[in-house]
Design brief:
The chain contains four helices and seven strands; from the N terminus they run E-H-H-E-E-E-E-E-E-H-H. The protein has helices at about 15-25, 25-35, 125-135, 135-155, and strands at about 5-15, 40-45, 55-60, 65-75, 80-85, 105-110, 115-120. Helices cover about 30% and strands about 35% of the residues. The protein has about 160 residues and is α+β, with helices and mostly antiparallel strands. It has a seven-stranded antiparallel sheet. The longest helix has 19 residues, at about 135-155. Helix 2 crosses helix 4. Strand 2 and strand 3 form a beta hairpin.
Length: about 160
């Protein structure tokens, strides 16, 4: 991690790694946690494989959905790692997305209490990193990690 270019968060999710993974891999589950509530998410494409599309839309009122993310997966190691970028869109065209271009790496590790969930978001320059931080990276990504944890923990076998 480069503190001048990267932002990161980590969280222990009290659910098995396979349960956390399924919350990422199933579009209907991803829609439940991917955007901070009360925003609503609609998954248009979720091809969880290297080169696959990752396209979502968002809504304040659950009726009108506008573009949110148009990205592609760079690496996918089942149950362990997901890497995606919005620097290249879902059709493999170079992109210049607003408000910030990024590459995100999500890692899942076994933990005695469930899953050690880590997010590392890389930026191309310090200004982009600072803009993402100022826009509420910790609050936004932290909130969705909490929503993911709540979903996964509710799905976990007891």
């Amino acid at each position: 991690m480069n503190p001048d270019l990267d932002l990161s968060l980590e969280r222990i999710i009290r659910a098995p790694r396979a349960t956390v993974w399924s919350a990422w891999a199933d579009p209907s589950r991803l829609e439940k946690w991917w955007l901070p509530a009360p925003m609503r998410c609609r998954v248009d494409q979720l091809e969880l494989r290297p080169g696959g599309a990752f396209v979502t839309r968002m809504s304040d009122d659950a009726t009108e959905f506008v573009p949110h993310l148009d990205a592609c997966f760079l690496a996918v190691d089942e149950l362990r790692r997901i890497v995606f970028t919005n620097a290249v869109d879902s059709t493999w065209r170079p992109a210049n997305p607003a408000p910030v271009t990024m590459t995100a790496t999500i890692t899942l590790h076994e933990h005695p209490d469930g899953t050690d969930y880590r997010m590392l978001v890389r930026h191309g320059d310090p200004e982009s990193r600072a803009r993402h931080d100022k826009l509420g990276f910790a609050d936004g990504w932290g909130t969705v990690a909490g929503q993911l944890a709540a979903l996964a923990e509710s799905m976990a076998p007891r």
